Automatic annotation (TrEMBL):
Residues 16-303, 397-494 form the Peptidase S9A N-terminal domain. It comes from Bifidobacterium vansinderenii. It comes from the Bacteria. Signal peptide: none annotated. Belongs to the peptidase S9A family. One of its GO terms (biological process) is proteolysis. The keyword Protease applies. One of its GO terms (molecular function) is serine-type endopeptidase activity. The keyword Protease applies. InterPro entries: AB_hydrolase_fold, Pept_S9A_N, Peptidase_S9_cat, Peptidase_S9A, Serine_Peptidase_S9A. Keywords: Hydrolase, Protease, Serine protease. Residues 588-812 form the Peptidase S9 prolyl oligopeptidase catalytic domain. This is Peptidase S9.
Length: 815
């Protein structure tokens, strides 16, 4: 059954008609007449009416899917263990954990005291988790359900505790605009201090002694730009600004160092970062840089020590890209001199592969490095002074290092997946003093035939004897493990419980590759239920080297493309992001099971602009290379369809925020490949926004998209793909693509969104709904939420069911 049939019981229903009031936008010698810019006046009566009318239209159009929505919501609920608790994590003198209870929207933060200083075995949760019973001596630290009473929207910006656990600084947002109110609570009495610090950025920190709070404020463009100091128990109007970042490209954050010795300010743009420090013993002192800011250089630092009988060796662990685009880690012996230090000093213990990358800023290629640069991103890493575990891998990027009393852990990315390596601390000390590569050993998840994500988790205590880490795949729920590198002992602490008849063996996943039109190999992850996707029956699973070709031409209509095949192709839900160097790594999803169980193939093209293959992957999908992101997604879609895996008449695409820009671009570029598209909080009026420096995020985004205000080439390039102003009328599509078809569109947005303003998707919606465009477009507009949508788990499940019902209907699935 098609979407039209599902919705046909509301005959003749037409979308609201938006007024056209052309406004001139002129830049770089070009003029664009924008008919819907008037929608930027959020409080105006006609904007409010348009929003209300569109929501009513959407709800009436979705009436035929009410039963399916209810079914999907109940399937989610039935699979989730609603009363549950996390494995306790030790921090100082308490074990902390989160409890959820059936019927409650939010988690409850709790704790119990440790038994003694050597208590490193977490309290057992098996019985208490299933029944919702409290552990002995349990204390509620923060109950979001109580705090959220009376609010339609509720989000916690952060919770930070004093060292003794008595005081907590917390911030909450009840509007969705990411401006928080900060309070301090005495957990001994349960009472808040009288002062309330209004409209701060999320996060902040309380000093270990509980006497001071440091927090950030935002400017008119919603940029966290300055740090303030507050003395607990005093009026907020006595607070003092301690740092101000004048460069509009930079965002500022503040926190305490891992060893609680320093208050740390981090100021960073997309391409440059700086760390400033202040001893916690001198909270009214002056912050000083650890390493002076260098344009185009990113770095971060953590502090630790090698224990030694003759005196500990204090070290700084610095990760930076001053010499290597994919970062290196230097360990600096802090006995030699005091800060400021210089990037590149110390002992390099791990470095990424420069293959495919641009040179670091200010550096030129030598003949040897030029040869490396023009190798494929997929070239194998062979760096002589690297640990053995980093040899012979693709897309090697170093992501971080953490040093504890008993072990050292290394996070990196290789072969398109996150990786984790660990070694005993004594061995790291020996390697450091000897000046040789460190002998890390990899932690290999127990997920044969799966695509996995792995990373450190719940390790806040320096003295913890074992490392905790998590693993998850697309089809295997998350697991929390504890590993002792000295004894090579690995213990499973908890596996996420999926209720009902769920069996991971019923599902399969694989990563294959698509050669796109410029010759690059783009990885794509596929997930499906066995027996329901004929073309993948018996296929090799897990991380494969299987390669298929993207077609050379995309001009066929949906009907012509579908007629080529024997109807074995599956309906496909294909989703992507591809921006900001963010990787779309494997993760488990309960709602996704409802799609897979209905025979839907779930696909994730890991397009350029993300970080899956290291820095080069990002560089090749940003600024004047941004079109690669869209082309990769289109070519992967077409390759899966042309190879008989997915049905073009039942292919639905999805993306949100920058992924919503991706959705708008591919809809304009290749409408014949998609039956429907869901675009969530989509960044679709990109050029207008990036030209306006008064808007949130604009100046900081120039490092991502380019600066069209001052660069004509960037302006012309962005104008090619900005979705809103490139929507074609049906006659033009027929001339260019040989079909009037355009995918049905489902759009979500929130009126309080500060990252992608509501006006962008509303203007796009109005343009799509113009009669001559001939597009079936609806939008669900949240009036009490922000960029992340609604809050509360049951509300969120209802929203996912709503969205997935539309997607299934667009594939012709109504049950």
């Amino acid at each position: 059954m098609t979407v039209d049939n599902v919705w046909s019981d509301i005959a003749g229903l037409m979308p609201p008609k938006a007024e056209r009031e052309p406004k001139r936008r002129s830049a770089q010698g070009d003029t664009f007449l924008d008919p819907y810019e008037w929608m930027r006046d959020k409080e105006s009566d006609r904007v409010q009416k348009f929003v209300a009318d569109e929501n009513e239209y959407c709800e009436r159009r979705m009436t035929g899917l009410k039963t399916l929505r209810g079914t999907l919501f109940e399937e989610i609920k039935a699979r989730v263990q609603q009363t549950d608790m996390s494995v306790p994590t030790r921090m100082n003198d308490y074990w902390y954990f989160t409890r959820t209870e059936e019927g409650k929207q939010y988690g409850i933060q709790c704790r119990v005291p440790i038994r003694d200083e050597n208590d490193w075995d977490p309290p057992s949760i098996s019985a208490a988790a299933a029944q919702g019973d409290a552990l002995g001596n349990e204390e509620v630290v923060f109950d979001c359900n109580k705090e959220a009473e009376g609010h339609d929207f509720f989000s916690v910006g952060g919770l930070d505790l004093s060292h003794d656990g008595r005081y907590v600084a917390y911030s909450v947002d009840t509007a969705g605009n990411e401006r928080y109110d900060l309070r301090i609570r005495d957990l001994k009495t349960g009472e808040d201090f009288p002062e309330v610090i209004r409209e701060v950025s999320g996060g902040g920190c309380i000093t270990p002694d509980g006497k001071w709070v440091f927090y950030t404020r935002v400017d008119d463009a919603w940029r966290p730009y300055c740090v303030w100091r507050h003395r607990v128990g005093t009026p907020a109007d006595q607070d003092v600004q301690v740092y101000h970042e004048p460069d509009e490209r930079f965002w500022v954050g503040v926190g305490t160092s891992f060893d609680e010795k320093q208050i740390i300010i981090e100021s960073s743009s997309k391409t440059t970062s700086e760390v400033l420090m202040l001893p916690v013993t001198d909270p009214e002192g002056t912050f000083s840089p650890f390493i002076e800011r260098m344009p185009g250089v990113e770095y971060d630092v953590s502090f630790a020590r090698f224990e030694d009988e003759d005196g500990d060796i204090p070290v700084a662990l610095v990760i930076h890209n001053v010499k290597n685009p994919n970062f290196e880690i230097d360990v600096i012996d802090m006995r030699s001199h005091k800060p400021p230090y210089t990037l590149g000093e110390g002992v390099c213990v791990a470095q990424g592969s420069p293959s495919g990358c641009e040179p670091p800023q200010g550096r030129k290629f030598t003949p040897a490095t030029r040869a490396i640069r023009y190798e494929s991103v997929n070239s194998l890493s062979e760096i002589s002074n690297n640990p053995e575990i980093l040899q012979g891998v693709q897309g090697l990027r170093i992501e971080g290092i953490a040093m504890y009393r008993n072990f050292v852990a290394l996070s990196y990315r290789a072969n398109s997946l996150p990786q984790l390596a660990v070694m005993p601390k004594y061995a790291a000390k020996e390697d450091f003093l000897a000046g040789r590569p460190w002998g890390f050993g990899g932690i290999v998840p127990r997920v044969d035939g799966k695509l996995y994500s792995i990373g450190m988790s719940s390790n806040p205590s320096y003295d913890a004897p074992r490392i905790r880490y998590t693993t998850v795949s697309y089809t295997q729920p998350g697991e929390l493990h504890e590993y002792d590198p000295e004894t090579d002992t690995d213990v499973l602490l908890k596996r996420a419980n999926v209720l009902g008849d769920f069996d991971p063996a019923d599902y399969a996943e694989k990563r294959m590759w698509v050669r796109v039109r410029d010759g690059e190999h783009v990885p794509v992850s596929l997930v499906w239920r066995r027996g329901l996707v004929p073309a993948l029956e018996g296929a090799k699973e897990g991380l494969t080297d299987e390669l298929i070709e993207a077609p050379r031409e995309l001009t066929l209509s949906l009907e012509d493309m579908s007629a080529r095949y024997d109807r074995r192709e599956a309906p496909m839900f294909i989703t992507g992001y591809g921006a900001y160097e963010i990787s779309s790594d494997p993760g488990f999803s309960v709602p996704r099971l409802s799609l897979l169980d209905r025979g839907v193939l779930y696909a994730v093209p890991h397009v350029r602009g993300g970080g899956e293959m290291g820095r080069a992957w990002y560089e090749q999908g940003r600024k004047l290379n941004k079109m690669n992101t869209f082309i990769d997604f289109v070519d992967v879609t077409a390759a899966l369809q042309r190879n008989g895996i997915a049905d073009p008449k039942r292919t639905v695409a999805n993306g949100g925020s920058a992924g919503g820009l991706l959705m708008g671009a591919v809809a304009n570029m290749a409408p014949q490949l998609y039956a429907g598209i869901e675009a969530d909080v989509p960044f679709v009026d990109a050029l207008t926004s990036i030209l306006d420096t008064s808007l949130p995020l604009t100046v900081t985004e120039w490092d991502e998209w380019g600066d069209p205000l001052h660069n004509a080439e960037v302006y012309r390039y962005m104008k090619q793909y900005s979705p809103y102003e490139n929507v074609k009328n049906a006659d033009d599509r027929e001339q260019e693509f040989g079909t009037r078809h355009f995918p049905a569109m489902f759009i979500t947005t929130s009126m309080n969104d500060t990252r992608v303003l509501y006006v962008e998707p509303l203007k796009w919606l109005a343009r799509l709904q113009e009669p001559e465009v001939e597009v079936d477009a609806v939008a669900k507009i949240e009036v009490e939420a922000g960029h992340g949508g609604v809050t509360g788990r049951y509300k969120r499940w209802q929203e996912i069911a709503y969205e997935n019902a539309w997607c299934l209907a667009a594939m012709g699935i109504e049950e």
